[in-house]
Specification:
heterodimer, A: 783 residues, alpha/beta, Rossmann fold, 7-stranded parallel beta sheet, 6-stranded parallel beta sheet, B: 224 residues, 9-stranded mixed beta sheet, 7-stranded mixed beta sheet, 3 helices
Chain lengths: 783, 224
């Protein structure tokens, strides 16, 4: 037995955090004390609850646990419960729970919403939260901590255990799990330092774009030399394109698969099963495999493209080398020359042990509202008790009673300045002071809307003329809307031809084409951390290209010659024409969220100044804005006080805020999710949440949902702190360079997905242009 | 003054407003369709959610603005003015106060829709159809339209998706061909039906066009 496993067995504190890299027998360590306890004092009823963010993990661990339990002849029932569990099994689990239940956060919420929750959970002795580091900064974690607070009330003798990967500051995980202190931290030995390096290909990386495809042959060589390889991409589009090219290079017909979030559930399950059986040599994937079952065969991890955060790189590296005494092996392939610098910075950071912080942020109020409604489903609420309970959860420790009451009011009446719904309140106060559902039937609707994960509007993709066939996957509705018949795109590794839409399903046929249009999937993206951005700027300033390959050094010199190299204390702004549009590139190095915000604020100012911006796109190093008219001098746009002051009002009108509002509206229960992922068709269609957002802004600007939206947007998407940092660092020193064409440093942005449209005066001009095309032919009308 | 689009229909000059109303200068008639007043209240009643209860004031504010702009002698609401009859009953005291001043001195016609096919206690005429040559006004377009007649209707809440130079816009729209004109929904909380929906196939000819709302609205062919 490993020392940390022994430590877990001996622990007597009410909370423990186990920090262990993959392969250290982490999960078994979590369960050993449960098994020992059940052997000594066998009992019916729920004893141990295990929660994993992944359904597949819950199922896999159940299988793994059942083996030793059966061998030892123990009479312990172990079951998993997820979205895939049959209705029959679920009913049985409620009536007659197993001793060990493995489940997901969402399934736990559902269980807690039933009136018999207090009976089911009264006997719980241990709660194990797996991959807790992955939840700490997310709404999913907020919800889980609220559930934990509820469980602690239902079963005060309960011990809580958090299993975590390596983090910078374990005491933060400990404080998250047990805010009142008293969590014991147990650390497994870290194992040998990983074997990581940059993967050099025969040809240098391109100046821009390409998604790492220049390195396909080098990657293929690595696959041939290893048992099983995981190839991580940062975006789904890149994963598809890379997989396509890798397959063309696959002369030995090795079994290689693709896995990402937009593929159908069936397709993903097949890939995971094949990997578990050991019948795959490589998987091209995205963050969809960041967490998951330990596949013992994986002996190499390749990261394509810059990793953005050191800690994510470290965690991905941990997916290789199942045996914890063997060094994990990983290679990084920079996708383009710019990324080379970030990849090198990441390597240095891993060697120096420099991970990023894990700040605990305040929990979402929308999640709190969902929790209030779920509680009401289980039974009447005593507001004082509920407030006391939620403040024992780390993300909600700082919630004031006033904020809580506002959340309650929202749940009950909608919380509007105009009190219009007294007759139709969702929650009513009973004579005994308890708050209850006015209509018990609304519980079913509330249960259907459980969850904090929001899918963007996506449409299923299917082969035409094969109605019953499994869907190939999904694409964004915006992407589908632009397709004309005959256009081709990649999905699941194959090129398909768009035939049309039938009942909100995209119909395609196999395409003989060799080059597809890119499918713009919008996965979640992480920003390059301040730490890495800083290292890159320092390197650029140093002028020291030693250790960099010749092609990178040449490219840096090229940028210096054609334009200028960005510096820490100056802001480089380049202007050039491209494809009939005027472009402006702002090299801020503030991370993609802050660069995105900069795009919002700048385009808003430009629109007001009559400059007709059409849109922008941002990456971690720069923001690229395009529009119909060029700008003579962009420097006034960056005046710090104006930027900061204008930020407030302008931000509220933008597409990014509306996106945040939509998520908040869904999670808090204002609007319902589409059932089964299908949209309602026809005139009864649910109207867009944008209308609700605009209405609230106009008539009820202090409404709690707008505040929730603001907080969300400020935190995640906006990251104004990094813009502040940049403005301070730059101190008004702005260099405006006009170029005849795109610069080497600006080129990557042209191929960046995730463009944000600016709906302003440009829209009207475009519409009028379109109409003007048809004026001579219009038989029907004329101005 | 908002910018509108002038166009020809039934050999008459008509104006399409940015908010989705229709004005006929020669007869001094303003037409709006599918106000769906009381929608948020109806949804609350049905347990379908507690939406911001400002749709009725907002829709009325827009209507008041249109009436102030064009000062029509006749106002026609082309059906589904109320989300259901109970909403109409609940709202009528408030509406009577609110609409009274703007109805004064004008002829007001409420066409019955499928949501509000019953008596409503508000002043004005309540009709199934209204003929004002050369037009016939009704809530839902009918397949049997006699030769030489021109029909104006609502009901479908048409929306148009326009793909332009790599950008996709989605707007409410009037749909029309030589003999039929379908208005977009004027109400604040109204969803819509895409213009390429099969429901329109039987109603509009191959030469159909859409007037997409904007400042001003813009006419483009209906691609199908």
């Amino acid at each position: 037995m490993h020392p940390h496993q022994r430590a877990m067995l001996r622990a007597t504190s009410p909370a423990q955090v186990l920090i262990a890299p993959t392969g250290a027998g982490k999960t078994l360590s979590g369960f050993l004390p449960s098994l020992v306890d059940l052997i000594h004092a066998p009992k019916q009823g729920l004893h141990t609850l295990y929660i994993s963010p992944l359904k597949a993990l819950a199922a896999d661990i159940r299988r793994n646990l059942q083996i030793p339990v059966a061998e030892m002849g123990l009479d312990i029932r172990i079951e998993d419960r997820t979205g895939d569990t049959s209705a029959h099994m679920r009913r049985r689990q409620r009536a007659d729970p197993p001793q060990i239940l493995l489940t997901t956060p969402e399934s736990l919420v559902l269980l807690l919403s039933y009136p018999e929750a207090d009976k089911i959970f009264a006997s719980v002795k241990r709660v194990i939260l797996d991959e807790i580091h992955a939840l700490i900064d997310r709404k999913r974690g907020d919800q889980l901590m609220l559930c934990l607070a509820r469980l602690a009330r239902l079963s005060p003798q309960m011990t809580r255990v958090g299993l975590s990967a390596t983090v910078k500051d374990p005491s933060q995980i400990a404080a998250y799990l047990a805010p009142d202190g008293g969590a014991e931290i147990i650390t497994a030995p870290q194992g040998p330092a990983p074997d990581i390096a940059i993967l050099e290909a025969d040809i240098p990386p391109p100046w821009a774009g390409g998604g790492g495809r220049y390195g396909v042959q080098a990657v293929y060589d690595q696959i041939k030399r290893h048992r099983a390889t995981l190839i991580f991409h940062n975006t789904r589009a890149n994963a598809e394109l890379f997989f396509h090219e890798l397959w063309q290079a696959n002369e030995d017909t090795l079994p290689i698969a693709i896995h990402h979030g937009a593929l159908s559930r069936e397709a993903r399950a097949k890939v995971e099963a094949a990997m578990s059986e050991g019948s795959l040599r490589a998987i091209v994937c995205t963050g969809s495999l960041d967490l998951g079952i330990d596949w013992g065969d994986v002996d190499l991890v390749i990261q394509i493209g810059a990793p953005k955060e050191v800690k994510r790189l470290v965690q991905r590296i941990g997916r290789a080398g199942h045996r914890f005494d063997l060094a994990s092996k990983a290679r990084i392939l920079p996708a383009n020359r710019f990324e080379y610098l970030e990849c090198q910075a990441a390597l240095e950071a891993v060697r120096d042990g420099g991970l990023e912080d894990d700040p605990i942020r305040q929990g979402g109020l929308d999640v709190l509202c969902q929790h209030i409604l779920i509680s009401a489903c289980a039974g009447p609420i005593a507001p004082d008790d509920l407030y006391a309970e939620i403040t024992t959860a780390a993300p909600y420790a700082g919630v004031t009673r006033a904020e809580f009451d506002r959340a309650l009011d929202f749940c009950a009446t909608g919380g509007y300045a105009l009190r219009a719904y007294d007759r139709w309140q969702r929650l009513v106060t009973r004579p005994d002071g308890m708050l209850a559902l006015r209509d018990p039937r609304s519980a079913a609707r509330i249960r259907q809307n459980i969850g904090t994960i929001i899918e963007t509007d996506r449409l299923k993709v299917r082969m035409a003329k094969r109605r019953g066939g499994a869907p190939l996957g999904e694409v964004e509705e915006n992407f589908a809307a632009q397709l004309r018949q005959g256009d081709s795109f990649l999905i699941g590794g194959q090129i398909v031809r768009y035939e049309g839409m039938r009942e909100l399903v995209v119909e395609v046929s196999p395409s003989p084409q060799k080059r597809p249009k890119i499918a713009t999937f919008m996965g979640t993206k992480f920003a390059t951390s301040l730490q890495l951005s800083d290292r890159i700027l320092a390197r650029l300033e140093s002028g020291d290209w030693s250790g960099l390959p010749a092609h990178i050094a040449d490219w840096l010199d090229h940028q210096a010659r054609l334009s200028r190299l960005p510096q820490r204390d100056r802001l480089l702004v380049e202007a050039y024409p491209h494809e009939g549009r005027a472009h402006l590139c702002v090299h801020g190095f503030a991370g993609r969220n802050a660069q995105q915000t900069l795009g919002l604020v700048l385009t808003h100012r430009m629109d007001q100044m009559g400059l007709a911006p059409m849109g922008f796109v941002a990456n971690d190093y720069a923001t690229l804005i395009w529009g119909l008219d060029p700008i003579a001098d962009p420097r006034p746009l960056f005046e710090p006080d104006l930027l900061r002051a204008a930020f407030e009002g302008w931000l509220s009108e933008n597409a990014v805020m509306k996106r945040s509002f939509k998520a908040v509206a869904l999670i808090s229960g204002l609007i319902e999710r589409s059932v089964n992922g299908t949209k309602k068709t026809g005139r009864q269609a649910v109207f867009s949440s944008d209308i609700l957002y605009d209405t609230l802004r106009k008539y009820d600007s202090d409404h709690i949902l707008l505040e929730m939206t603001r907080r969300d947007a400020l935190r995640g998407l906006v990251d104004f702190g990094r813009i502040d940092e940049m403005l301070t660092r730059v101190g008004g020193r702005i260099d405006h360079i006009a170029l005849p064409r795109v610069s080497p440093f600006a080129a990557p942005l042209l191929l960046e997905a995730g463009r944000i449209p600016v709906h302003g005066s440009a829209d009207q001009r475009l519409l009028e242009e379109e109409a003007a095309k048809f004026l001579p032919q219009a038989a029907l009308g004329h101005r | 003054m908002q910018a509108h689009l002038e166009f020809q229909f039934g050999m008459e000059r008509l104006l399409a407003t940015p908010q989705g109303a229709l004005y006929w200068p020669k007869a001094d008639v303003l037409i709006v369709s599918d106000l769906h007043l009381g929608k948020s209240e109806r949804m609350a009643r049905r347990g379908a959610g507690l939406l911001p209860p400002y749709d009725t004031p907002e829709t009325l504010a827009r209507l008041t603005e249109e009436i102030a702009t064009y000062d029509p002698a006749v106002v026609i609401c082309l059906g589904d003015s109320f989300d259901d009859l109970e909403a109409a009953r609940n709202l009528s005291p408030y509406l009577a106060r609110r609409l009274g001043p703007i109805q004064a001195g004008r002829k007001w016609v409420w066409i019955l829709g499928n949501h509000d096919a019953g008596p409503v206690n508000l002043s004005g005429e309540h009709l199934d159809e209204f003929e004002t040559p050369p037009f016939i006004l009704r809530h839902i377009a009918r397949a049997d339209l006699p030769e030489g007649r021109f029909e104006i209707s609502g009901h479908y809440h048409p929306k148009m998706r326009v793909a332009l130079r790599g950008r996709s816009l989605s707007r409410a729209a009037f749909l029309m061909d030589e003999r039929r004109l379908i208005l977009p929904a004027f109400g604040a909380y109204t969803g819509g039906l895409w213009a390429d929906d099969p429901a329109f196939a039987g109603l509009l000819g191959a030469d159909a066009a859409a007037i997409v709302l904007g400042q001003p609205p813009v006419m483009i062919p209906l691609k199908r």
